[in-house]
TrEMBL record:
Gene from which the chain derives: pomA
Domain of life of the native organism: Bacteria
Biological-process GO terms, alphabetical: bacterial-type flagellum-dependent swarming motility; chemotaxis
Major subcellular site: membrane
Domain MotA/TolQ/ExbB proton channel: from-to ranges: 101-218
Protein name: Flagellar motor protein MotP
Native species: Egicoccus halophilus
GO CC terms, sorted: plasma membrane
Keyword Protease: no
Length: 264
């Protein structure tokens, strides 16, 4: 799990706990399993209704990925493409076929396979751009799902509050229970807001940011593959692709290939 995700959640909960202690309040009124069940199941049910079965299939994987914080390693991709450019320039494009099994990134492997197949540059670009767009669409579904949960959670919090108020108003014969009933009713609203802003919205934001990073990494890989297709040297590939990186992350030809004198 990404420490930032867990740390942020702990920090937010800590704020609530400290504020409660400072005010001298009790935690007991803030605990309501029935309110949590109503908000979570209600939001999840409404969210599932808004999407197709095919859209939901990849959600568990996307959720775990967002929490773990997995992201593509652009540095590894640049170094690998430079090494492939070296092979292509020295032994020809067909020689790249022997390197296909060593490429873990599916997108890069697809691009290199197209290089081996000798497809036109326009076809190569179109094929990989379709893959980029399809990835964006798949990630967009997961992002939209969690945003929908963030929208439904407060709504079901209000539903729980209204239900609680109706039950309270139907039992006015016992005035001693009015305060307890009101507190329990408002607790559901609190849970709705908390689940939306401590869980669903942060996960949606993380997925959105990770999608941006993955698409940026795919753009770097696409540019590198096209540069190899044009017969660029390893130095040319590295210098071009490192221009996508901030200066502090640019390693250079020597460190990537171990050849300070690599020809241009």
């Amino acid at each position: 799990m990404d420490p930032l995700f867990l740390g942020g959640l702990v920090l937010a909960l800590l704020g609530i706990i400290i504020a409660t202690i400072i005010d001298g309040n009790s935690f007991a009124p803030l605990i309501g399993p029935s309110s949590a069940v109503l908000v979570l199941l209600g939001a999840l049910g409404a969210g599932l209704m808004a999407f197709r079965k095919a859209d939901i299939g990849s959600l568990p994987k996307s959720t775990v990925k967002a929490i773990k914080g997995d992201s593509l390693d652009v540095q590894t991709t640049i170094t690998q493409l430079a090494q492939l450019a070296e092979v292509a320039r020295r032994d020809g494009m067909l020689a790249l076929e022997a390197r296909l099994e060593t490429i873990e990134d599916r997108f890069v492997r697809t691009g290199v396979q197209l290089l081996v197949d000798g497809v036109d540059e326009e076809v190569l670009r179109d094929t990989l751009e379709i893959e980029v767009a399809a990835t964006d669409d798949r990630h967009g579904i997961a992002i939209a799902f969690f945003k929908s949960l963030a929208g439904y959670a407060p709504t079901f919090g209000m539903v729980g509050t209204v239900i609680g108020l109706i039950n309270m108003l139907g039992n006015l014969s016992d005035p001693s229970q009015l305060g307890k009933g009101m507190a329990l009713a408002l607790l559901t609203t609190l849970y709705g807001v908390m689940f939306a802003n401590l869980l669903f919205n942060p996960v949606a934001e993380r997925l959105g940011r990770m999608n941006e990073l993955e698409l940026a990494a795919m753009d770097v890989a696409l540019d590198g593959i096209l540069t190899i297709r044009r017969g660029a040297s390893p130095r040319g590939v590295i210098e071009r692709l490192e221009s996508y990186l901030p200066p502090s992350e640019r390693i250079g030809v020597a460190d990537r290939l171990g050849k300070p004198g690599e020809a241009a």
